[in-house]
Structures are given as C-alpha cells and as structure tokens.
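We emphasize that the prediction below concerns an isolated chain of 341 residues; any contacts that depend on oligomerization or on bound cofactors are therefore not represented. The input was used exactly as deposited, without trimming of termini.
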Amino acid sequence: MLRKKESYIVAVVGATGAVGNEMVKTLEERYFPVERLRLFASERSEGKIKEFKDKEIPVETLKEDSFNGIDIALFSAGAERSRIWAPVAARAGSVVVDNSSQWRMDPDVPLVVPEVNPDDLKWHKGIIANPNCSTIQMVVVLKPIHDVAKIKRVVATTFQAVSGTGQKAMDELLQQTTDLLNFREVKCNVYPYQIAFNVIPHIDKFLENGYTKEEMKMVNETRKILGDNSIRITATTVRVPVFRGHSESLNIETERKLPPDEVRAILSAAPNVIVFDAPEKNIYPIPINVAGKDETYVGRIREDESIDTGINMWIVADNLRKGAALNAVQIAEKLIETASV
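Result of the prediction step, given as a token string:
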C-alpha cells in the first residue's frame, strides 16, 4: 500500500518505447511529485540517456533487486515482461500500473480509468491494470451516458493509429510512405500488408469466434470497467495509416431515448470529454487535431433512425496519451491522493 509522502521514487519500465517515452514526458508535464526517476528497458537500451526535468537519466536493465525502494512502477514493456516482473515489483513494495494486457482480466487486479471507476483502486493488491487504448476512450464517453439512461448495446468500429503497435510500426509507415512516393519497393515487417495508403481490418490475433483479441478486449474490458456484464458489445477494429490518434464510430442503444442535445449536455459535463460537434461548419474530431491532447473528443452526435433508442457518435483521442501514458499517470495521481499516512 502506498504511503503518503511529499515525493516518490518512480520507475518506468519499457522507457525507450513509444508509450514509455510518453510516460516520462507526461510525468514531467503534469508536475508529478518525483523524488527520483529510474528508467528500465531491454539489454540493447542499457546505458542510453534520457532527459527528465533537465537531468540526464541512464536506462537500466531489470534485475531481481531493481524495485527495492521504488514507490510506483509504470510498466509498458509487453505482457510477457509484465507477467514476470510486475509480481517482483509488487513483492518489493512497489505499486505497479501495468499497460500490457497481462493483468487486465485478472479478477484480483483492478482495471481502472480514473474518470470512470476510481474506487476500484481501493482493492488493489500491488498491481493495477491500465486498459486497452481503444477501450479507455470509449468508456470515458459511455460511463456518463450509462449513468443516465443505462446502455443496452454498443456497436464499435475503430480506426486505430499505427502508434498503437509501437515505434517500429510508426517507422514502417513513414518508410513505406517515403518509398511509395519515390517509386521504390515497399517492405512489410510489422504488419502482414502494406499500411501506407491502406487500411487493415486486423489488430492482434484472430480467435476461434472470428473476432480478434483486440475486439474481444474492448468487449470484456468495457464490461469489467463499467461493472455491468449485461451490456451487449460488438467491435470491429481496423488499423489505418495515421501516426497518432485512435478514432471510433459508436452506435449506442440505451434503455430510454436520449435526444442528441441531451447527449451533448451529458458529455459536455463529463470529466475530460470535449464535445466538438458542429458538422454544418465542418467541426468534428479528427486525429491530426487531437494528437498531443489529453481529452477525448466527441462529435457527429446524432439519432440512429433505424431503432427507437439509438445514438451514433464519433470519438477521437490520442492513443499514446489518454489511451496509455496519461491514463497510467492519472492512476498514479489517484494513488497519491488517497495514500495512507
């Protein structure tokens, strides 16, 4: 359990990856009370230097005693490393906030979005799971609607940026685009097909039910975060040639009819949600305008005329910020707010 202090020793595991870099940046931007920052990554990154608050910090390799004295450990190093090292950190007395899929559906691990279910932090046992990027931005919008009119069903289609896969995918999109514009042969290493000037309806592995793991993450994680297994959810997740910012088309069916103006009012009052919705003026969220922002943007709010109690909307958020690093740091902020004396 975290103890109340003026400042904390913080670790970032996976510090050289796209999300790890964003975690370090977010800690500094939000003036998180860091007494000392330690950075960990794989052996090939050992000795690299990263800057934090005008100080140069070397990247270390994880060892059995690496977490001694660390108060909070932010993990973004993949499920396998989290499976091995998160329990090591928790046993050493650290509180782990893990960005991988390893612990999300573990019944003993809270899955938290601070705007939605902060009270779940009370029952953590040393490890807290950060939800999937596409789930986070969706539940921030669904929760205030669910509180008012109880959601019965959600149909989600995502348009996810390559940064959700990591730095290598961002590099591949840039390289493929450069090669195509210079009439050179395109090489595919990260994705099964060319991603530049293309869309791929395939994120993560396919399962026996025909869905991908990414799609089922959205289904199962949303129910766990909202604490309601009665919500029917179906998803199709698509990779698009965008560097930063996931977009989602949502069709939401509620128990009682919600006129679009009421939905706008509900979401305008929701924490860290911005209603950006005036289509007659070409005002709606797009990834290029949302990159680097902390809020989830909502537009194209309109009635679904094919059913009695349906609403359509379009939501966009920066997947490296709210979809990953920011949410993890917000969890850490909630932990220090409620830390015991």
